[in-house]
## 1
Amino acid sequence: MAKFETPLLDDLEKGPWPSFVTDIKRQAKTKPELEDLLGQLELSYKDKETHWKHGGIVGVFGYGGGVIGRYSDMPEKFPGVAHFHTVRVNQPSGLYYSSAYLRQIMEMWERRGSGLTNMHGSTGDMVLLGTQTDQLEEIFWELTHDMNTDLGGSGGNLRTPSCCLGMSRCEYACIDAQNICHDMTQTYQDELHRPAFPYKFKIKVSGCPNDCVAAIARSDFAIIGTWRDDIRIDQAAVQGYVKGELTPNAGAHSGRDWGKFDIVKEVINLCPTKCMSWDGNALKIDNKECTRCMHCINVMPRALRPGVEKGCSILCGAKAPILEGQRLATLIVPFMKMEPPYDECKELLNKVLDWWMEHGKNRERIGELIGRVGMREFLKAAELKAIPQMVKEPRSNPYIFWEEADVPGGWERDLAAFRKKHPL
Amino acid sequence: MDIEELKAKIMEWANKSTKPKFYFKDMGKAAPEVGLREIKKAVTALVQEQKLELWSSGSTSMYGVKGKGLTEEQQMGKHEE
Ligand code: SF4
Ligand code: SF4
């Protein structure tokens, strides 16, 4: 018999989708404190306001992130969730787990926490939902000593870097996304665990421009695999698609009758830069106009492959809507080679971080700082040259303040002569 | 500046602050002549020594003098007399 009536929550169990309410109710059979979670949540829906206090002082010794304090504002009524903290666990690159590891972590979480998880949180971590303050150091010890796992980032920190599964399974990968992600996580440990940034900072790595981790939309520093030479074309395989011998999109859209594959309609005309042509025999690509959107490669993966000179593009400044609205990232480096130990990338990142730490306002993401002080100031700090891709659209930012050093040959300026002609 | 001297300056600034919690960057005002990376080292040591403590909403972090403002016990609903 449930401890509280929960008609509003019960409504969320109807319909075709799996319901988190059902999951919590099931777990409450062995963890009675979750009855209080259901009760508090029902009341929050009824009152139309949260009954969690805003944040809290909580953590493990030596770390300033990884644990998020959650305290009920009605501890007498809901003692089971008087404190119900979240633990973020640093996920492995590409989210590969052994079943033994998952069993170990779940056994620990059943014993020391609620058993509820969120696999995975939007930053990428494995999120363990609901434990008490006196369990935190024990959890931290078991994670680090018995499971060789660390806490992830939270607060005004570097957040746990995340990546796609890259070269481990995907033929499109142009960079070793998993190794880059792991290396960045190791290199920036201090930034991950000890908050000194104006706000959160996310690094995400995608192996190719398909950008499966949405780095371009969700990370302050996006590393996206690309190539700078020509798309490799196998003309015989192109014919194979045209004749219907090969299935377009590797069968991803099968199951409905889309009619015969039409290369002009489905590939040539959908190329965003119109740099492809098909004369009925051969496919041609004007590679200098290609923006590496991946569309043609996704449709005909047996016929088209990224080039062989691979590296990454780096974009900066994306964020989700919370505070000030969302932003997409700006391309700051069109191509950079990415070989371990990724020094060039880290040097750039260090400059970006130093500038943001110095000039960012509290709770201002780097993209907002760039928006406030201008791309020009950012480029000076990052020691990068302006490129056309940084112009949002033609004529949107025509007022460029050139300095003498920016202009080949410089200029002579006789202020006295100018004033004589234009007296004040 | 010697780290002990910097720690003392930060604690003096923090104790004088009228706010119970402050952002990391604001602690830079304790010693504007040193860089924020140096401030971070001193602040990390002060947290280890349990003179400063961290508050977090999950998305933001703030620091405070341990025991000043809301305490760890009070947030659990156990109000000290
Ligand atoms: S981003 Fe590219 S490389 Fe990574 S999984 Fe997606 S398609 Fe593959
Ligand atoms: S990758 Fe995109 S832009 Fe480049 S040729 Fe293919 S469809 Fe066109």
Note: Chain A has three domains: 7-146, 162-218+315-390, 232-305.
## 2
Amino acid sequence: MPELELDLTVNGRRITRHVDPSYRLLDLLRDDLALTGTKEGCGAGECGTCSVFVDGKLFKSCLMPASKAQGTTIETIEGLSRPGELTPVQRAFHKTGASQCGYCIPGMVMAATSALRENPAAGIEEIKERMGGNICRCTGYTKIFEAVEIARDVIAGTLPETALNPELTKTSYIGHNTRRLDAPSKVSGRLKYAGDMEMQGMLHMQVLRSPHAHARISRIDTSKAEALPGVHCVITCDDVPGEDGFGVFVHDQPIMARGKVRHVGEAVAAVAADTVRIAREATKLIAVEYEPLPGLYDPEEALRPGAPVIHDYAADNVVKHIPLRKGDIETGFAAAELIIEERFSTQQVEHAYLEPEAGIAYVDHDDVVTVISPSQNITHHRHMLSTIIDKPINKVRFIMSPVGGGFGGKEDMIYQGMLALSAMKSGRPVRLVFTREESIMASAKRHPSRTSYRMGLTKEGRITAVEFSMLSDGGAYGMSSEGVMRKAAILSCGPYEVENIKVDTTVVYTNNTPSGAFRTFGGMQAQFATESMMDMAAEKLGLDPFEIRRRNMMKAGSRTHTQQTLNSASIDRVLEAAETASRWEAGPPNVRGANRSDLDGPDTRQPCTLGARFNEARHQIEKAKVAS
Amino acid sequence: MKRKMRGRGVAASWYGIARTATIDRAGAWAELDDGGTAKVLTGVTEIGEGILTLLSQVAAEELGVKPEQVTIGDNDTARSPEAAHAGATRQTYMIGNSVALACREAKARLFDEIAQAWEVPVEDLRSFDGFLWAESTNKRITMEEAVALCKKRGVVPVGSGSFTAHGTGLDPVDGHGSPWQAYVFGTQVAEVEVDTITGEVQVLGIWAAHDVGRAINPRGVEGQIEGGVVQGLGQALMEDYQTSEGHPVTHGFAKYILPTSLDVPQINSVIVEDPDPLSPLGAKGIGEPSLIPTAPAVMNAIYDAIGARIRDLPATPERVLAALHEKRRADAQTA
Ligand code: FES
Ligand code: FES
């Protein structure tokens, strides 16, 4: 393909480059100029991690063809300040703790810088709107807003520069707001995530994924792919030298599909080649013959007799069932003066960490198979990989690269095995970086749940019995399902002491995208149901929602749902703290929103009508111009 | 009913700290290094939550140096001790405590040598923020000098620590067992505005009170609460991963909707400290628990505003309108 010649100015330097005409500005910056502070979170203009200035205007560099950058002046995160220095915006991010995983942060700093360049007097509402194109999955945005406001005031001179200094301590570092040690590397874009790393002689991997939800694989022919110039190796399950299988609780997932595929997007084969493009071409040359099998897409169907079987070892499709029994619910319901029965459901949720999965593997001079990746569980991963590649533990090494958001989603070893195998087969370092679409289809989600709930209470609001049953869709592989069900069961009935309970949580296999670990590990799904029930009961009994919770809450000496005796329980304190802080007006939860006196306080934000704040800001600027 | 209706709701929650229904363990090594700096090695750390900073604060406090003088080498199964995984709200509790224990051992080595050199009782020695001194004497040196003196006496001040949390498994029949040794509790209040024509819900305020045991870095705790609340809000109102016959339908961020800066309520965090009696630091954790009460608090608030109960997440505008329609139909029947 003919190369494109480009002349442009990047961070103050004139640059001439010959590039692939399919390049985006983002590729030019990252791959050719090694400016990896600009990140690729989605490649589709939706996340803002790739934000740069083009001729002074904020742009998403993933959306701009490199050819369009001809003759422009580009400024990236690396160009905002000299090495070792930080701008007031960056220092303010450091000060407030605005960076967590840091993956969104270079883009956020660019967007914040742009907002303050466009309007140095921007109010918080305008700042929010101007930064609305940048997603952060970690921080809840709050500390970012705080940082931008401080930076604005320091730049304007209405706050002294010392506002950016660290807080001092005289007595202790415990309880001290020590600034994040990793913030300077994150706000300046210096921190290298796995996808930013390069090694000498490094190859690029692409993965061939299943287009079927459930199918038998009768044949895989890799010969055409192997013959493509630039391809170093193609791997399938046949390249696994040891005992194949990984998973957090049950090792039911092969490194690549073995005999059949169980969900759309499952890895079937992988190619390591000189470039990403050659590797991608080669995956298209791999011939796979599938015989589609009947699929299961609903957890209730999975339990029906005669349902298709997803894993031979689990003929009933049940991954795990956790029962809890305490007291006697018949007695408990007999003593109840009010019985409420309800059903609840929660959806499958994507982690949406902004850093897509990425990693590099190599075999070192001592024959140690090494994998660098944002793995949340390097200890367990090395155990599993050592069995899979049949090497002693000290010949397997996992290094955890900076994690651009995990939330449980990077606990599963869904690609590190492929990297290791291809590094072993090719003798070269191999890197794989997922696209956003790949990340979404191949990684685990939060377990969706369906819960039937029966709760008995006395007139005074004391819970006498709970019958709780949750069914969850674990998808194609076990991953963390067992643990998620266990935690859902243990926490099910909430922070309340209940004498009589019958709790069952069950997770089944289907041919949906697997469910796995996700922040709260089942605790959220279960307690959503319980906390909804508490309010429904409070309404029926005419009780304030805090009051009904107090009447049932655990105390020191309480026996939990698993019959553990608690030494202490701070639920009384957190209830009181939330009640006081929110200036809660007591009363039953009987749709009294229209008459409450505790609404719309200074500790709430104003509702937003998009664009209104811009108009208001413009109006103010116009007014100021007229006045001056 | 007016077009825009407001309401408030509350939800409480609880959570266990560290791995569930099993024994949990983590290890760390520490060394007081030249120049009064320190090295700490442990097997797993940062996934964005701020644990690196927290560990450097713990090491600084235990050793008597400054957090920025602590180097944390980590995350390498071939070079650092086992600390297992970054999850289960276990990092502050498991790794924080193992680092504290490792540092105590390293400091004890140093203090033994200094006490002998100065001929003072070891119990009288203190160190903080780069200085070491003996109480009720005028003996005071920098940590740099202290480490040099220790090494001149032939001793490298190193230490190791291992921390255990004694969870037990659950009985397979009735589930009895002690899954965790430390529990945290939380309560959140949500204030919402519901547009009864479009069904859109805006969360305007969250008051989040969480017990964290002991807040080692209060700003970091707030960051975890704010992040958890906004993920909870996403699950409550918009996020919905969907498949059709196993094929992902929401395969990019154009289809999979995430909370942005415009969706964020004012978040008012209240940190409650009920120290853990079973560990050196007393700190417990906050990573996961902060997410739990948000969705039910928001659903209870929606009910308070419009009298429609959302039982199926997320409460998208379509679902809110459907629930409102259902309520109006039911109200008309009873009227
Ligand atoms: S907006 Fe460009 S990578 Fe997401
Ligand atoms: S800090 Fe924003 S995505 Fe992690």
Note: Residues A 40-43, 45-50, 60, 62 surround FE2/S2 (inorganic) cluster (ligand 1) (CB under 6 Å).
